[in-house]
Input
Amino acid sequence: AQSVAQPEDQVNVAEGNPLTVKCTYSVSGNPYLFWYVQYPNRGLQFLLKYITGDNLVKGSYGFEAEFNKSQTSFHLKKPSALVSDSALYFCAVRDRSSASKIIFGSGTRLSIRP
Amino acid sequence: DAGVTQSPTHLIKTRGQHVTLRCSPISGHKSVSWYQQVLGQGPQFIFQYYEKEERGRGNFPDRFSARQFPNYSSELNVNALLLGDSALYLCASSSGASDSYEQYFGPGTRLTVT
Output
């Protein structure tokens, strides 16, 4: 069975510092991996995805994520955090080798202090 | 361009009642998915429709049903409401049926069951 874990409920970072939001996954085959962000009282917004190819994926708003097959991780990163990055971040995984359903992590609340 | 729209925004129902939630996808998108997001958790997949055919179903009871219309809009129906059905219901559309496509989410319908 596939699963995804976001081990940190909350991440606190000072503005201007680099940020990392962690995500690990478990699938029987090869994964499609996604990051979404949710602002208060809004739906989810797509940030980036890994399908195939380069392990470093660049997405919206300066975010990037690195696919690490050996560690089964897909951590979200940004070199310099902004206060406006404060939101709820979700990692999602789908096993491409089966007719599986997309699974979302429980979310990580990112708080950027000025 | 208009994004994914959902109606109503908020809804209060009594246990045992029936509810219908509506979703209009982004113009040109033929795939619609429904998710339930309970407070403090990630979205859980309920249904996916593509070209009016059910393409996937999550682990939800038969009280939950959906359909997609010729104009690609969709309805989610929930019968015999339980207190535990209280949640934010999200609709998402994508341009294709492939699992690699990112999804675009609507703002959601907040359902409260009393």
User: Anything to note?
Assistant: Chain A has a mean pLDDT of 92. The CA atoms of residues 47 and 65 of chain A lie 10 Å apart.
